[in-house]
Amino acid sequence: DTLIVARNLSKVYKMGEVTVEALRGVSFELMEGEMVVVLGPSGSGKSTLLNIIGGMDKPSDGELFYMGTPLHSSDGKQLTSYRRNEVGFVFQFYNLLPNLTALENVLLSVQIARNPLSAEELLKKVGLADRAHHFPSQLSGGEQQRVAIARAMVKNPRLLLCDEPTGALDYKTSIQVLKLLQDFCYTYSKTVVIITHNAAIAQMAHRVFYLKDGRLDRIVENENPLPPE
Ligand code: ADP
Ligand code: ADP
Predict the structure, then answer these.
(1) Cα angle value 90/91/96 (rounded, 5°)
(2) Which of 7, 51, 156, 174 could cysteine-pair with 56, CB 3.0–4.6 Å?
């Protein structure tokens, strides 16, 4: 089924005299259980696009539907509910709270969720059952990112949005994190969108969106998405 429909999205930032067209007429659909990688040079509009899909920002023009619900005309309260219940976010620098343990970081998301999963089960799933009571500073970068993925998933969102999730990790650790994201996509039929600079990641996605100067330049489909090497 179709999860997201975007039609002719544009985003204009105005700063005094300066106007930036961050997105220009971007249209696409995202299917349930699909993994999409967004590639493009710095400044091409990747983060802007992810923020709009995630309900953190609104398009200047165009339409965006989530399971038929128009997000482009939703008010702040509706967008907050959408972000809390339907979307999981994963960031480059993990954004864990330093004074909370791994388990407590995950549990924090449980409190705001409508249909939460078990935090303990998810920590086990990401391979960190024995790290539940460690603080972020006691965990490696890869472990912190896996906690962040558990935190995003515990809300049981249909959509998982990842902004450079492996940007701060070494190659081997990146692969572990990507395999985890792919596993959630395949096993639980989550829609996963990953922004990256790393073209090698593209081979594991069902589709690759290439952004250029705020336009969706082309979409490439992979018949057989590969697990990362
Ligand atoms: P990417 O993620 O591909 O690097 P961004 O979406 O961050 O690209 O940015 C796209 C363009 O929009 C850039 O020119 C950037 O400077 C501009 N931009 C992004 N966010 C803002 C903002 N909050 N205010 C003004 N300009 C912005
Ligand atoms: P990786 O090989 O995944 O990059 P590290 O070599 O950084 O991991 O860490 C190896 C192990 O040591 C990890 O399991 C982590 O839990 C533990 N560890 C890393 N940094 C600290 C720390 N500052 N305090 C306690 N344990 C740590």
Answers:
(1) 85
(2) 51
2, 30 contact by CB (below 8 A): yes
- 22 CA distance to ligand 1 middle (Å): 6
Residue range 34-92, pLDDT digits in tens: 999 999 999 999 999 999 999 999 999 999 999 999 999 999 999 999 999 999 999 99
- Parallel, antiparallel, or unpaired: how do β-strands 2-15 and 215-221 relate? unpaired
Residues 6+ apart with CB under 8 A from 68: none
User: Could you tell me the pTM of the whole model?
Assistant: 0.88
Of ligand 1's atoms, which has the minimum distance to the CA of residue 51? 6
Rounded to whole angstroms, how far apart are CA atoms 73 and 78? 10
Q: Which two tokens stand for residue 112?
A: 């705001």
Look-up: residue for tokens 């089960």? 121
Atom of ligand 1 nearest to the CA of 23: 10
Q: Any idea what DSSP says for residue 14? A: E
Q: Which atom of ligand 2 is nearest to the CA of 137?
A: 23
State the DSSP H helix or E strand holding residue 40, giving kind and residue range, or none if neither.
none
* Cβ-based neighbours of 222, under 8 Å, separated by 6 or more: 202, 203, 205, 206, 207, 208
How far, in Å, is the centroid of ligand 2 from the Cα of 187? 28
CA 152 to ligand 1 center in whole angstroms: 24
The neighbour count for residue 43, using CB atoms within 10 Å, is 13
